[in-house]
Hints:
- A 5-stranded parallel β-sheet has the order 2-1-3-4-5, with helices on both faces. A 4-stranded antiparallel β-sheet has the order 6-7-8-9, covered by helices on one side.
- Helices cover about 45% and strands about 25% of the residues.
- The mean pLDDT is about 90.
- Helix 2 runs parallel beside helix 3 and helix 6 crosses helix 8 (about 195-210).
- The protein is of the alpha/beta class.
- It folds into 2 domains: about 10-135, Rossmann fold (3-Layer(aba) Sandwich), CATH 3.40.50; about 135-230, Winged helix-like DNA-binding domain superfamily/Winged helix DNA-binding domain (Arc Repressor Mutant, subunit A, Orthogonal Bundle), CATH 1.10.10.
Amino acid sequence: MEDKKxxxxxxxxxxxxxxLVLKNYLELNDYEVTLERDGRLGLAAFxxxxxxxxxxxxxxxxxxxxxxxxxxxxxxxxxxxFFLSAKTLKEDIITGYKLGADDYxxxxxxxxxLLLKIKAIIKRNExxxxxxxxxxxxxxxxxxxxxxxxxxxxxKTQVLSPKENELLKMLAxxxxxxxxxEKALKKIWGSDTYFNGxxxxxxxxKLRKYLKEDEKxxxxxxxxxxxxxxxx
Length: 232
């Protein structure tokens, strides 16, 4: 039987005692926890690894939790994110949710309640991912199966590379709508640098070649913004 995947949590907390206690508690409940004590180190950890959930203190040195959340959301818009904060003003809580937080938990908090919230949102995210993984796309005369990384036209099957697959999936999910360069680069390549941009252009050219058999589908360049998968 396949072992259950251990969920990875990024915990950013500048209170050493609270951070260690919470890290140990979560690890006792079978989570893998990376603890960082300021926002700058937290961002470096997020850029280095993939996490299933982020727990962010709001008041931290160097980079505060709100700023860190913005940076994390730029890299991965979908990762679950909780704020842990002693800031209880309504304005702070509203700011947290506007930044895309899934929860804003005020200190002091009950660790058991936090654990239940973590379990619930990670399970929800896993269920959503399972549904997304099973979605297939009919694109004019093509049939695209992202799970198998297969693009079929008539009797011909093109097996896509992982990046080709992810890029076509994002285009298909935004069919006839704009997919920004920034969003695709940060999601697939991790950052929107010049060199990553040139790399993405190469993959776009490959996808155009695969899709050339049917004139009813086209990847259109929206100058300065991104791409649109146009399907008639």
